[in-house]
Amino acid sequence: MYYLLLILIYIAFISLGLPDSVLGAAWPSMYRSFGVPEGSAGIITMLMYSGTMISSMASDWVIRKLGTGYVLVLSVALTAITMLGFSMAENFTMLCLIALPYGLGGGCVDASLNNYVATHYKARHMNFLHCFWGIGTIISPLVMGAFIENGGVWTQGYRAIAIFQFILVAVLLFSVPLWKRESNEHQEEKSPVSFRKLISMPGVKASLTAFFSYCALETTMGLWTSTYLSEVKGIDLAMATKCGMLFYIGIASGRFISGLISEKLGDMKLIGIGISVTILSLCALLIPGTGGPMLYSLIILAGMGCGPIFPSMVHNSPEISGPDGSQMLIGFQLAMASAGSITIPALFGIIVNRISIALMPCFSLIFALILLTMVLKISRRH
Fold it and tell me: How far is CA 355 from CA 29, 45, 205, in A?
């Protein structure tokens, strides 16, 4: 059962990755079809991650009431329904209305699976699992790009990904008894801590800020890279849509490599190496005239640097809070991650509309430096 659940978690992480990159890949086509400013993607992202933030904060209570199995099935089902809704949206307002429940689907399942892996499996599995999330983020731009390149429209890409999610719902439905059995075996292991006690623990506040900063960086890069390549570097629209996945290829590659070496280096060293690579890559992107293979390589390298950061921070969470507080801490970490994904890409959307999308590397660099500062604080306390 140990390995069967692990396989299901791997599949679920692919599902979590599919919706996270598809908006950025499709947006160069979407904003033109709806006749809205290109910076309006920030509004959609803000609504999506508002839903994720709400469900992440409620995850500890919801999981205790329903159990991980039912949370997993319901969350993926909600994501599938809303992705299908995106494909049927007739205007930008309808897109906005669908975006909030779209985000609700991801928060609880993300928190529950991350906590389960952090407390039951070794660090290499956390990195490999998030590598599978990266595979999901690579697949969706490829699917979207294929439809757009072959004369289709972005709605067909969303519909195809929704079908995959519905198939996954059917598979996960049969796994509910396995999760119930696992829950019964471990139900006496933990007693929840209060939020007041949790927030007073050394390193918790720095950890929450680190999650905010990391996801501000990742979501900004993931959402705006395709548009940056199209508008600033003059790359063909269909090619820019596909090249948007380069950042996520880097993330997936970084997580795979980290899974191989995580037990030798440990979480904090991996985080430090990842941040350093990302900062150097973003600095290189600021050099005028960067283009061609060098441009693509730097985007991949920025993703590779980001790769180990999130899973290593999650896996390190029980070290900060102890196993009794890890579910609550990870829920609030993901809520702060969602807050970063809500506010910062939306803020950058305003910058895009009023100044220029050419500022994307510089803007992302600011949050990489904040992240580095927070990680150094955590390292000193632990």
Answer: 21, 20, 33
Contact 48, 337 (CB under 8 A): no
Say which CATH architecture domain 8-183+195-381 belongs to.
Answer: Up-down Bundle (1.20)
pLDDT per residue as tens digits for the range 307-363: 999 989 988 888 887 767 777 888 888 889 888 987 888 788 888 888 888 899 999
| Cα torsion 119, 121, 123, 127: sign | negative
Cβ-contact 298, 285 below 8 angstroms? yes
CB neighbours of residue 355 within 10 Å: 10
3-class state of residue 128 by DSSP: helix
Per domain, the residue ranges of the chain are 8-183+195-381
* CA-to-CA dists, residue 143 to 155, 235, 242, angstroms: 11, 19, 9
Structure tokens at 214: 């990391």
Q: Rg of the Cα trace of the chain?
A: 19
Q: Distance between CA 310 and CA 303 in Å, rounded?
A: 12
